[in-house]
Amino acid sequence: MIRTFSLRSAAALAIVAVLATAPAVAQPTSADTAPIQRDEGDITTSQDIVVLGSVGYRGRSDEAEPVLSYDSEFFQRFEPLTAGDALKRVPSVTFLSDVIESDGARLRGLPPGYTQILINGERVPGNGDDRSFFMDRIPAELIDRVEILRSSSARRTGDAVAGTINIELRDGFELDGGYVRAGALYFDDEELEPSLGLVYGGKVGPGRLLVGLNFQGRHNPKRKRSLRYGDSPENDPDFRVNEFDNREDQSDTRDGKDYSANASYEIDGETTGFRISGFYVRTDRTETERSFEYDDPTAISGPLPSGNLLTDNRNVNNIDQENYSIDARLSHDWSLGKTTLRLGHARFDDKQRESENEIDFDVDYDDGEVPVFEQAFTATDIVDKEYTAKLDHEFDLGHDIQLVVGGFYQKKKRNTAILDADGEEDFPGLETSYDQFADSPDDLLSPFDPLEPTDGGVSRIEERRLDGFALVQGKSGGLTWEAGIRYETTRFDITDFTEAAAIPTQRNEYEKWLPSASVKFDLTSRDRITASVARTNRRPDFNFISPALLEEEVGDSDLLGNPQLGPETAWGFDLGYERRIGRTGIVGINAFYRDVTDLIELTNTGEEGSEGEGTFVYQPQNVGDGKVWGVEFDLSTDLGFLGLPDTGLFGNVSWLDSEITDFAGKRRFNGQSDYVYNIGFVQDIPRWGVAFGATHRKQGAAYDRVISEEVRTTYGADLEIFVEKRIGSNFTIRAVGSNLLNGAKREVFNKFDNLEDQQTRDFDEYELESEKAGPVFQLMARYAF
């Protein structure tokens, strides 16, 4: 908590610092902005993108920060559909998504909220309560390169405990000419989805223009099975026989279309540069689930009382999401240095309409009870808007040393509206006439009750940030270094309109000093050592700062939000070594450590919960500490030193670990896999105009423990193969097979009614769930013009 005048003094500090030095942006790192002055002779032609002349490899950054850079050529031959698909091939990125989906990136295995996601060096809003941005919202066709920033810098916001992922989209200086992309994807359920794209870049007037359009059919048919038991496997070795409760068979199909566009216009003058860019993505998606619960491990007969069907449920969620960002940058060289002004606006609109209809046949027929039909409808509308302004100045101190100062302002507004309605009706005789394979719960629809706000479901959050930073950077011989400090201030107001009569608008303020330093030393022309230290933070989840009381949110207990939560903070250290191999190869190893304080954990307020004796009201507090560490190895090289210059080999493996002490003892950070690896190769045959390759990926088990529930998640391996044929200098056709091992996700759930039962291992339910999806085949063609 800070006093009101602290924000004002921070504003004065930032403004005075910038104006006093007069003009520009910190010497840009690859994740900030590319240097404004660029040579048109280095622009890639469309033929170079369509007809790849060599195998793509990991880039080597010359900035002080530890940065891994992967150009689109590194991913393109495996035809990733989204940025998330592309990230599956870079070190230390895991996902806990559904099978064949890659949404919330978990850098170093930590939950998505610990990773900072940037698009063209700028933050973008997402719909997640943890402030994360789903990477499957960005089509891979828009990407120029992906950068993994392992440590933090004073020049960027410090919301990067695990690190930063920066997605650089193509711009006018990345492409000369145009190309079209067309193809289709074939799925395991015989569904065919189109994929179309168009990209053009060229000189227009005094600058360069790039425009990209993309249309992508999305489809994911999955099959799930859950086996549920009523007692602990620890207490009964024969629990699968003695304690079987029910089985659920579920089909889960995600079907939709993505429409996207990006554009940029850039002018490079001798002393002045200007760029305006933006992207737009719309997702139109329907998620359909059909679930049958049976009282037998294998039977599929009809409803009780004569059959085995307990419930029939159909759930449909219609999702309409729009996400766009506009960014303008103006830079100018003055006598004292360079000044850069950057203005941005980003918005995320999320509209979801979800209906759930269920027939419950599990009633006491002997007492005259009849099947019950239940229906529920939920309407969700989230609008997240951000406005940002950055003003930086860099000037030369001599001896190849620069001083950089700057200020940053962000205004964020998030409006949430979640309304629901339900209904219930008895249907006598339904058990004798219902066929679950021909009929559906949707056949019994009746008018819904009026929509009502859910608890805490209608709210507004307004967040204002004002930061100042200063850093010094330089080069001397083989040493490149940077040291700086960032002062971040935050003030937010949250209003819960569902509780407006009892709870007025809540306000919180806090400030953080975030120092950082990085060095990079070239031992030889091939060998390099990198080291960095930085303090970072993670802001509280939106659902935790809501003042609403949510009944039965923690098992049978209640959850009370805490608007006075502060951010988690962490000191981080990275130490790495990398070596060039042959012409283009790199091998590297990096060790990292994070010491996290002020962790947000649920604490017992001592108040009795809404369900009475044995239940409580829990509230999040900054009471925990944690540690995260690991080792990351990556290799990317051709085999020219073995006489195979057209064979590319790449791979990475990360060993990840952490420790938190919670209500039940020690555990890892929730959802952190203990390892992840990727290996692959690309073989080019230039004289035939042919190339082929494969990748294999696997991530280790992840464990989650919260009050009243524990989950262990494992994934099967993923295999992808491609074959391409180049025809002339303008045309390429490529076939790709992914998920060729029929990837499976398996989860084990331990469920409890309350914390006391969890500590004594008195299970409410034990569940084994498996989810599978079949292979996906793509046929894609590109033509350059």
Automatic annotation (TrEMBL):
The lineage of its organism: Bacteria, Pseudomonadati, Pseudomonadota, Alphaproteobacteria, Sphingomonadales. GO terms for cellular component: cell outer membrane. InterPro entries: Beta-barrel_TonB, Beta-barrel_TonB_sf, Plug_dom, Plug_dom_sf. It is found in: Cell outer membrane. It holds the Pfam family Plug. This is TonB-dependent receptor. Residues 237-258 have a biased composition (Basic and acidic residues). Residues 63-164 form the TonB-dependent receptor plug domain. Residues 220-261, 288-307 are annotated as: Disordered. PANTHER family: PLUG DOMAIN-CONTAINING PROTEIN (PTHR40980), TONB-DEPENDENT RECEPTOR-LIKE BETA-BARREL DOMAIN-CONTAINING PROTEIN (PTHR40980:SF4). Residues 278-739 form the TonB-dependent receptor-like beta-barrel domain. Gene3D superfamilies: TonB-dependent receptor, beta-barrel domain (2.40.170.20), TonB-dependent receptor, plug domain (2.170.130.10). Keywords: Cell outer membrane, Membrane, Receptor, Signal, TonB box. Residues 1-26 form the signal peptide. It comes from the Bacteria. Belongs to the TonB-dependent receptor family. Its main location: membrane. The keyword Signal applies.
